[in-house]
């Protein structure tokens, strides 16, 4: 009664908030009172939740409680397995109705344990594969994938397929370690179990170095877990291994630690097992009296608690110990008991081995089918992707060709517009030049002839000077009109190109004033540029030279036309008085020059200092001429 009251006070907070499902403290699994109390709490929670079973939140809580009860009864004695399965079946049906795959997997894993305990490995395999399908459907959200991999590894371990067993155990360990630490002690317990399975595998495989590595990991996890049963189990495994390889002296202290821990928590199965192992250690150390004593104690506990698997080992130790101590009859009786038990266990093991082999082959077949299905899906997906990419690629090719054709059309129309504009300018300049030469030039010539008809001898000295000045101005005006009409658009420019016309322009400029002009050209300059560039460069050069004559008061002017890399450069440099800053910005002549430079995609730079001369540089991309020629070829084709 006192104990019940204490437990009620301890678990009272659980009932204050119905729906708070308690978690199992796996460090107290050995405490039967604790687990029985937890079962009582879970049953009361289930009864409370079932009153509101139609509410969605209560359905989830009900599944959690059923899951807890299934686990509690599964971890108990084998006689409670049916009770565990009763709760488990209710959980599976409810989870199936709610399409809760996680809960369905939990229920299937417990069901798999039932059939594995009953040595029905075929049915166990079927359930594992069913759980695996649900896990695949969840994808990365499946938290129990590691447990399925662990069960498959156990199957291959029993069939001695060591490489596959190692593969599945390691996969299980990797998946388990990547799961969130919602229940750290439980996670450590599972990790400890996987290390134990790997150490068993490596012992069977004969890889002693890896066995010791696994023991070190087991010991570290058991110490972190701070669970006496887990730590004792690890010490026992290590001691049994050293007994097996003939190092009983190293096994003895490990087994002694395990014995003390098992005895401290009253774990009878562990005490019985370690007692037998201690007997084997003393037998190897030739202390036959102690070996007999420990083996008899282990046998007594095995008989008392019906630990059938322990009896053959105890009888084997007694057979050897009695024989060494001279008790031949007792040794013979122990041997007969050992043989009888081993024969019965051997038949059972052979049946288990056959079932395991069948299970292993079925697992291989199922995995192969899954791989084939996955490869088929992957191949189909890749085929669809390739077809889509091909369709997109073909569309892009057609689109690119359409754009290219449109660009060709735009370039052709642009050239037509430019040529039409240039032709219009040329025609207009020819008309203006013709008007200047024919009309204005004719009028000036007639006026000059009329003046020359007059007899200057009839005029006084002052009037004669005026007459001479007027005649001289008329002669100069006629000469300038002829020069201007010719230079507005020299006929030679279309026929011969820019260089010969520039050369003749410089010659005329030198004969027309006091400024000495010189022209320099580079040898790699092409003989002909595009009509647009030749036309505008000529007008720019003519305007710049004319400005020098009008405003610069220079004695020397250097005109350079050359190709520098991918540019054609026209430079006009004089030693005159320079250009005021205001005229650089506002002068109509320079604005016209700047606009013509932009028309042929060039740049204009002016460097001028008072009384220090002026340098004007026109830069034109050489590629423009090549693009023009290429577009002409495309248009012609």
Question: Your description of this structure?
Answer:
It contains 23 helices and five strands. 77% of the residues lie in helices and 6% in strands. The chain has five domains: 1-142, Serine Threonine Protein Phosphatase 5, Tetratricopeptide repeat, CATH 1.25.40; 152-217; 261-354, Serine Threonine Protein Phosphatase 5, Tetratricopeptide repeat (Alpha Horseshoe); 377-489, no CATH class; 497-636, 2-Layer Sandwich (Heat Shock Protein 90), CATH 3.30.565.10. The chain starts with a helix and ends with a helix. Helix 1 crosses helix 2 (32-49) and helix 6 (121-138) packs antiparallel against helix 7 (145-158). The chain has 637 residues and is mainly alpha-helical. Strands 1-2-3-5-4 form a five-stranded mixed beta sheet. It is an enzyme of class 2 (transferase). The chain crosses the membrane at residues 381-398.
